[in-house]
């Protein structure tokens, strides 16, 4: 039986939808905070396990009868690592046969500017130390997140202004990452495995600007700026100093080549080439 945590979230939901194609409902379980939001899964015959990452007792109940757990990374930045440890500990107590985790594909954990990403590697380390058989999904940046980076439809008027330099990103659609993970989880465990799930090519924000120009027929430019100037712009828009620096750090890591990694793991698990930049942006921006 496979348990998916965060099963009503965007990534967890994408995985669950694909698992429903590959497994009978009685082979699936969903760990959710709110049963009402998961009633559709319940009506489809999927077992609901209600609780939170902060509640070890609810995690123990959730692990009953489970062979494989997919731990979707938590969103509470302050408590994330401890929450993940709670899930891993519960899986170990229950004798789960495999734990999988949604990590991030970044080139060098020791030179990251965005310190929040360290939580992923701390979680990986804890999983490995637990002795549980594991599958790590190191996912690239979602192509679906590009509108957030460039300001949504406002990009067609003001262009892209970011401190990303000439950094490149191997973007992938969230739906395809979910599909690939479901394919891996539906297979028998084959020992400890780390998948580096990236798009088939990496792209700069200049490439993204050119693709958006072609799609919209409007001129979209890319203007790289210095990190300090970008942080000041965010603060001028009302963002807190902490949040402004976090966003700047994330994009500075792109400029430093942290996201410029291309592998064939996603293609292999999908059984086809991942969606490329133009078609992906067409889907994301609704063209």
From TrEMBL:
Gene3D superfamilies: NAD(P)-binding Rossmann-like Domain, UDP-galactose 4-epimerase, domain 1
One of the Pfam families matching this protein, by short name: NmrA
Protein name: NAD(P)H dehydrogenase (Quinone)
Domain NmrA-like, first and last residues per copy: 2-239
Taxonomic placement: Bacteria, Pseudomonadati, Bacteroidota, Cytophagia, Cytophagales
Superkingdom of the organism of origin: Bacteria
């Amino acid at each position: 039986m496979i348990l998916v945590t965060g099963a009503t979230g965007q990534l967890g939901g994408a995985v669950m939808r694909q698992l429903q194609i590959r497994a009978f409902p009685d082979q699936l379980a969903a760990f959710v905070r709110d049963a009402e939001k998961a009633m559709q899964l319940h009506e489809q015959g999927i077992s609901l396990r209600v609780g939170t990452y902060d509640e070890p007792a609810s995690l123990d109940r959730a692990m009953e009868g489970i062979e494989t757990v997919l731990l979707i990374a938590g969103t509470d930045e302050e408590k994330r690592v401890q929450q993940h440890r709670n899930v891993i500990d519960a899986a170990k107590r229950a004798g789960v046969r495999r734990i999988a985790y949604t990590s991030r594909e970044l080139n060098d954990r020791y030179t990251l500017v965005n310190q929040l990403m360290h939580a992923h590697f701390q979680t990986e380390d804890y999983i490995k130390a637990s002795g549980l058989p594991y599958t790590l999904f190191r996912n690239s940046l979602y192509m679906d997140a590009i509108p957030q980076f460039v300001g949504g439809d406002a990009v067609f008027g003001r262009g892209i202004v970011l401190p990303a330099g000439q950094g490149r990103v191997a973007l992938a659609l969230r739906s395809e990452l979910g599909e690939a993970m479901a394919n891996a989880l539906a297979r028998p465990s084959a020992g400890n495995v780390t998948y580096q799930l990236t798009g088939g090519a990496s792209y700069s924000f200049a490439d993204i600007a050119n693709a958006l120009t072609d799609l919209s027929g409007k001129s979209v430019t890319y203007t790289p700026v210095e990190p300090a100037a970008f942080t000041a712009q965010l603060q001028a828009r009302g963002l807190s100093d902490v949040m402004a620096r976090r966003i700047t750090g994330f994009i500075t890591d792109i400029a430093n080549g942290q996201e410029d990694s291309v592998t064939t793991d996603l293609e292999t698990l999908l059984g086809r080439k991942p969606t490329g930049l133009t078609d992906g942006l067409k889907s994301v921006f609704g063209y």
